[in-house]
Amino acid sequence: MSALRKEAIEIYYDQEKYFQEKEYSPKKRIKKKKKNNYFIESFKNTAMIGITFLLGIIIVYNYAVITDKQMELNNLNMEIANLNDEIDRYNIALESIKNTNSIEEMAKTYLGMNYPTRKQTVFLDFTYSPEITEDESSIVAKDENILIGLIDKVVSFIR
């Protein structure tokens, strides 16, 4: 028996036949394709998961950018509203300052100004008379205005 076994072993372990049968057998080819398909399928699945993860991160980042821009826009709108309110306040203050009654009151109280009296009014005659020169008339008018101005200031301080 042992002799028969040796021959059987020798027949099956003949190198050329053994490797030729192993290399070109249809069963081995199918197994190799299955291994390649398994590797390709696992790589595809991993790539799909990675791409999905990256797309998710990109979408979240874009939403963050949109939210940031929207917050900036809201801040700018609030600043515009505040500036419009400030402009309205300045316009109201300007209208109260432009009021002639308030100007008159401020001139009387703070500056001591009053309406001119009859003495402060100077009437000019534009008729031509060769006897009086312009220099003489202006000197007389200036002297009268200075005295009347001093009297009016004293009177305004008393009031």
Summarize the structure.
The chain has helices spanning 2-12, 15-23, 26-98, 100-109, 134-158. With 159 residues, it is mainly α.
Q: Any overview of this molecule?
A:
The longest helix has 73 residues, at 26-98. This protein has two domains: 1-98; 111-159, no CATH class. With 159 residues, the protein is mainly α. The protein has helices at 2-12, 15-23, 26-98, 100-109, 134-158. 81% of the residues lie in helices and 0% in strands.
Q: Structural class of the helices, strands and pairings? A: mainly alpha
Total strands: the figure is 0
Q: What is the succession of H and E elements?
A: HHHHH
Helix content: over 70%
Uncertain segments are none
Observed structural traits:
5 helices; 159 residues; single chain
Give the topology.
Blueprint: H1 2-12, H2 15-23, H3 26-98, H4 100-109, H5 134-158
